[in-house]
Hints:
Blueprint: E1 3-8, H1 14-25, E2 31-35, H2 41-50, E3 60-63, E4 66-69, H3 71-81, H4 91-105, H5 111-114, H6 130-150, H7 161-174, H8 184-194, H9 197-208
Parallel strand pairs: 1-2
Antiparallel strand pairs: 1-3, 3-4
Helix pairs in contact: 1-3, 1-7, 4-7, 6-8
Bound molecules: glutathione.
Amino acid sequence: MSRILYSGTKNASSWAFRAWLALKEQGIEFEECVVDIREPQRFGNLARIAEFSPPGAVPVFVDGNAIIYDSLAIMEYANDIGDGSLLPKDMKLRAQTRSLIAWQHSGLSNICPRLSFESSFYPDRRAMTSDEVADAKRLFDVFESALQRNGGPFLFGALSLADLTLVPTLIRIMSHRPDSDAWPLTQTWHSLLLSRNTVQEWMQEAMSLPPVLLDGYRG
Ligand SMILES: N[C@@H](CCC(=O)N[C@@H](CS)C(=O)NCC(=O)O)C(=O)O
């Protein structure tokens, strides 16, 4: 059976990271084809993706004759063809998990575009602005109360797609060294996620790459 994930440059593609994580966490075997999404080669490379996947973006997962695009669809598919453990069985908990995933998928907050995933790997990261600090606090409050309510160690008890989809966001925020002492459960959850073999594997490769410098980072 041929399964291929068209992924992206590891220190630039947070969406590919999410899909890749869900597939790996479900133990699904696949060939990985890393698409270089750095400019200027980005445009030609994504045009080739558009020849078989309408959005012309990564990630795309090809499973035999099925083309599955968009990280969220790939994450859900990974859960479907895996053991299904990445979404809670309880319907209310499942819906709450999906709410958080949907929130991340539809933007989450202004913090993601301002603190790009690429910037997590810059050797000299700037301080967070007061708006970014306020956004991070709002998110930490959400994480802390989910961890408290559901008893941890992950947001909804067992590891779920919600934890995985938030990994790149946590990396963006935490790499900018916010004061997170008031959210101890969130700190522990962050460390737990970062210590997973899957996350380590992606991050080690991401950290070995030359930083992808984007305009506007320093305002
Ligand atoms: N909603 C999509 C977003 C994918 C996305 O924006 N991917 C970036 C790389 S991380 C890309 O390929 N962008 C090219 C484009 O959108 O033209 C998903 O979740 O997969």
